[in-house]
Amino acid sequence: MNYSKIVNRSIEIAWRYKTLWVFGIFAGGGLPLLNFDYNDFNSSSWSADTFNSFSNISNELIVLLIAGFMVFGLAFFFMYLVSQGALIDAVNKIERGGVYKFSTSFSAGLKFFWRFLGISVLAIAILVTLVLFVVLICYLFFKIHIALGIISILILMPVAIFVFFLFYNVFSLAQRAVVLRDTSIGNALEEGYHLFKNHLQQNVIIFLVFVGFSIGIGILILILSLLLAIPLIALVIASQHSLIFLIILGLFIGLPVSIVVGGFLGVFYSNLYTLFYIELVEPKQSTLPPNPAGATGLA
Asked: What is the mean pLDDT of residues 72-86?
């Protein structure tokens, strides 16, 4: 398997089809906004009067704010699931010489929304259960003896990393099976597991590529954020502006950049696993293996 080809093609598609960035913003690129740590910088802007003003906020406003955040969160989660399916459908059409249209890919995302929701809920439930189980085991060993607790952490950490790797790859491949084969959640998870088990080495490599790019890009974004933050902090110190002014200025500069970068990265990360899935199921051939029972084939 040519992993450099997968990476290069993922970047090429993400750069060429910029309308996909809309889906990418929601699908996983995130918004790496500039973060500033002022360490109580310009403390006059955070006086006792400021905190008193926060304490005077009415309960109705607090409830309204909480409800607003919940609605925003649900809307973002809805778009996350729709965008995942839309990106997979788009790359499938692009790679197979079909006609990519933003509207048709969005419709595909809507079509597979409930199946993606089911996969996501199942994945979250399993991971939460495993995390609670690991925490409970470590807690019990620490109660017995601190040395046993430390040993349990050293043993369980590699296990937890492997389990995360297994679930991430299996569920990612299952998502591709849902869209490319229009199959059920059960069949998709079964296919994802078999593709993981039968191609373990390839799954390890693509996961390391994914993690490596994530870490590298994260470090690059952090460095660029710090480089941008230094002149902004210097500006505020020189002009005696408040912390709120600096935050607003940082958002004004960083938000557009974050949206563009987040959109591109969301498409790139999704492309990696979609192209990887296609390479796994049809190496050196133009058609997929027979579909599972009830599947209708590629869109």
From this structure: 89
